[in-house]
Design a protein that fits this description.
The complex is a heterodimer of chains A (291) and B (275). Chain A is an alpha/beta fold and 291 residues long. Chain A has 13 helices and ten strands. In chain A, strand 4 (61-66) and strand 5 form a beta hairpin. In chain A, helix 3 (101-111) packs parallel to helix 6 (147-159), helix 4 (116-130) crosses helix 6 (147-159) and helix 12 (270-282) packs across helix 13. Chain B contains ten helices and two strands; from the N terminus they run αααααββααααα. Classes of the chains: A alpha/beta (291), B mainly alpha (275). Bound molecules: adenosine-5'-triphosphate and magnesium ion.
Chain lengths: 291, 275
């Protein structure tokens, strides 16, 4: 289900003295099966924009089409859209509203009117995917979870709805490095095996750049850059202008270039960087600049 | 879905008008006095003057009028219900039947009572809102505490009481925000809020209230920890960063308030209620 956004504006607390415009004239299109990183500094409007992707916000200015259906149209079945576009909130505390983990994960499938057996199966599957042991955590009180476990439970609650599009806001925040890697691997697997469209929202390039195919950067409510990962990453000046650190490998390549070495800056990981440097050293011109 | 948009109670609207800068004791005692007066007001003329006075306060505080009045909106359905109730079930002696419908009869006395009561509730809410819009939390606490201090001799814990009252007031917007978040989380997983008839809409609220209460308790718990970790041990022996002082403007305000009150009392006594 493609998501199309045209000339979207958003103002919080519109019509009050506390009004604040958070999005300015945003247009973009997300196609089936894409793997996207939505990246920008704090307050840039990422969470606001992404809440239009599953019709949590309905546009007052501009238009949003999900699967070709206008979300502002009263005839559009928004409930169906929200099941198919899963949304993991930035703060899991805002997402978990039931008392136990099992109850919370069961909420979505119950609303989808699944049979008890199917609900049970989905809970097991979702918990296994996010790495929460079913026996241990099913009856665990939500408040008795650590921050990282809450995050996992929140993701499981969304996965249990079997969405076709998955939006993960600030997914890596609050997880330890290993937990981060595990969750990101799960997301990658879901994308590859189930062909789910994934939108990862983050402050930092380092987590996201390695995974996604396309990066959209935002600053102060506007889209700054949108394109294939390599291209966006290689425009280091644009990233730095909005205060985003490019991944460290790219910074190294950038510095090498400034020192006069002819290496490309559009690399995604250390392996690629190494092979590019080796290639540069093996070409006659490159060696000269080494000396 | 933006619950907090129509919320004005418990929100501070920063400014530097005379009204903002008055001693909080003046504002709190003044508001209390006005509300007491409001409870005795029972004719349209007096209410007209009251509304004009409230309007003048809003303008003087440079609060956008639309914003101040917006806060009244969420109360309208309840007021409408109470109004209808009064029309059909209040029958003050000597009132005449305007019309009957099914088994219900509406009287003109009931109509007047309903209308006067609605105006009273609206004005009461508006006056409280003006107080909280122009007075910061710290000022509210300090002012309430100072006003309650004479009761300390009767073993009333003035400081704690003031703090509790102010926290309760300031929690209103926080709770509304919290409710908004819970509604959003449930919407994201397939609850369709705001659709269906009135009864269905009310029923949708129950699954929101439970987590809301649990969160409120947790929040209170966290606040206690925060206060204790900053060595709060209750009211005794606390000193103030800002000592309250009456200024010239406070005395002028009292003069204006007393004049207004006098006028209202005359209006209340001289003009008979419309039923
Ligand atoms: N409920 C709200 N009421 C009023 N203003 C809000 C609200 N939520 C967000 N904003 C404002 O909208 C702007 C964009 O916020 P948003 O949450 O979309 O940013 P973000 O990019 O997700 O930031 P972060 O990376 O910190 O999560 C900010 O200026 C913020 O202060
Ligand atoms: Mg955010």
């Amino acid at each position: 289900m493609p998501i199309e956004i045209e000339n979207l504006n958003h103002t919080y607390k519109e019509g009050t003295p506390f009004a604040r415009q958070a999005l300015f004239n945003i247009s973009l299109r997300i196609d089936d099966g894409e793997f996207i990183g939505l990246i920008g500094p704090s307050q840039s409007g990422k969470s606001t924009l992404s809440q239009y992707f599953n019709a949590l916000f309905i546009p007052k200015s501009g238009r949003v089409f999900i699967d070709g259906k206008d979300t502002a149209d009263r005839k559009t079945d928004l409930v169906q859209i929200r099941f198919e576009v899963g949304y993991v909130f930035q703060n899991p505390e805002h997402q978990l509203f039931k008392t136990t983990v099992g109850e919370d994960i069961a909420f979505g499938p119950t609303r989808q009117k699944c049979s008890p057996e199917e609900i049970e199966e989905r809970i097991r599957e979702a918990m296994e995917l996010v790495g929460l042991d079913y026996e241990t955590f099913f009856e665990r009180d939500i408040f008795a979870l650590s921050g990282g476990q809450k995050k996992r439970a929140a993701i499981a609650g969304v996965l249990a709805c079997r969405p076709k599009v998955l939006i993960l806001d600030g997914i890596t925040a609050g997880l330890d490095p290993r937990g981060r890697k595990e969750i990101l691997n799960v997301v990658k697997k879901l994308h590859q095996e189930k062909k789910i469209t994934v939108i990862l929202i983050s402050h930092s390039m380092d987590d996201v750049a390695r995974l996604v195919d396309r990066i959209i950067t935002m600053d102060q409510g506007k889209i700054v850059d949108d394109g294939p990962t390599r291209k966006v990453l290689s425009r280091v000046d644009r990233l730095q202008q909005i205060g985003l650190e490019p991944p460290q490998v790219i910074e190294i390549m950038q510095q090498l270039r400034e020192k006069g070495f002819t290496v490309p800056t559009g690399v995604l990981n250390i392996k690629e960087a190494v092979s590019e440097i080796v290639k540069m050293l093996n070409t006659p011109g490159g060696e000269q600049s080494w000396n | 879905m933006e619950l907090t948009k129509n919320l004005t109670l418990g929100i501070y609207f920063p400014g530097d008008t005379t009204l903002h800068c008055l001693d909080p004791r003046t504002k709190i005692a003044g508001t209390t006095g006005l509300i007491t007066l409001l409870l005795f007001t029972n004719n349209y003329t007096a209410y007209t003057f009251f509304a004009a006075f409230a309007l003048a306060l809003i303008l003087a505080a440079k609060i956008p009028l639309g914003f101040a009045l917006r806060g009244l909106r969420p109360m309208l359905p309840f007021l409408a219900m109470m109004w209808l109730f009064q029309i059909f079930f209040q029958k003050p002696p000597g009132s005449e039947i305007i019309f009957s419908w099914w088994k219900l009869t509406a009287t003109d006395g009931g109509l007047h009572m309903g209308t006067l009561m609605s105006i009273r509730v609206l004005l009461l809410f508006l006056l409280t809102t003006i107080l909280t819009l122009t007075t910061s939390t710290v000022e509210l606490t300090d002012g309430t505490e100072a006003l309650l201090r004479p009761l300390q001799r009767l073993k009333v814990p003035a400081q704690e009481l003031a703090l509790t009252m102010v926290i309760a007031l300031r929690f209103v917007p926080t709770l509304a925000e919290e409710a908004e978040k819970i509604i959003k989380a449930q919407t994201a997983r397939g609850v369709d809020f705001g659709r269906g008839n009135f009864i269905q809409k009310i029923a949708q609220l129950f699954p929101v209230l439970l987590p809301l209460f649990i969160n409120a308790f947790r929040r209170a718990d966290e606040m206690i920890t925060a206060m204790e970790s900053r060595c709060y041990t209750g009211g005794t022996g606390r000193t103030k960063m800002k000592v309250l002082r009456m200024s010239k403007n406070d005395y002028y305000s009292w003069a204006v308030l007393l004049l207004f009150a006098l006028m209202q009392i005359i209006l209340i006594v001289k003009i008979a209620p419309p039923f």
